[in-house]
Amino acid sequence: YVTATRPTSPQIVLEPDAALTEEVRRKAPLAPHSGIKVRPVDGRAGIAAMREDLADVVILDAFAGARVPGELVTTQFLADVSRVLHPDGIMVANVTDSAPLSWTRRVVAGMRQTFSHVLLEAESATLKGRRYGNIILAAGNAPFPLADVIRRCAGAAFPFRVVRGAALSRMLTGVEAFTDADAASSPGPPQGGTYFS
After folding, report:
1. Number of folded domains in the chain?
2. Closest residue by Cα to residue 78 from 132, 124, 139
3. Do 146 and 97 belong together in one domain?
4. pLDDT truncated to tens, each residue of the chain (197 aa)?
């Protein structure tokens, strides 16, 4: 999508599973000069190796099985992401959780310690605890175009609610961010439950 809409934008993909990368390249090869570089390294080490002020956007969409690795949501990792981003850059994370969103709230608490602006977006059924599902988190030091974000989330095929400001603060009451000392992977989908990605 980025290559199609912004053809001059370079992209770096951090994928530790080299065999998976080779399989994807065989079945769906990248176009020549796509600008996409795939590095055979995990997200934590890959971000640590990047120089400061490198990226407009960092997207965290990493799963080991059905779980987001804990080392990718600690305050130490988030500080490293902030270092790599331009001052007006943003981090977007796709995570999964279910009510009462205890794990996600700890991730958001870490984002709030690191960035000036944080949004949480999820389907109402996930927010209300009716099912396990995807949650999108966005964080940055520049204000978001809120009206546009809210409109796009509401108009999606599966509409998302946007939680921000005071409502997000209420969700975080008494919540502590993950650190490297107590990192935990996200909860997996419930046994026999319904999961929509």
Report:
1. 2
2. 139
3. yes
4. 888 888 878 999 999 999 999 999 999 998 888 889 999 999 999 999 999 999 999 999 999 989 999 999 999 999 999 999 999 999 999 999 998 999 999 999 999 999 999 999 999 999 988 899 999 999 999 999 999 999 999 999 999 999 999 999 999 999 999 999 999 999 999 875 544 44
Domain encompassing residue 24: 1-41
| Statement to judge: residues 23 and 56 lie in one domain | no
Question: Would you say 56 and 107 are in contact if contact means Cβ atoms under 8 Å apart?
Answer: no
Do 119 and 137 touch, CB atoms closer than 8 A? yes
Q: What backbone phi and psi angles, to 5 degrees, belong to 46? A: -65, -45
| pTM value surpassing 0.90 | yes
d(CA 56, CA 112): 19
The H or E element that residue 135 is part of is strand 132-140
Q: Which amino acid is at 82?
A: S
Residue 32 structure tokens:
């020549």
Residue type at 61 in one-letter notation: D
Contact 164, 119 (CB under 8 A): yes
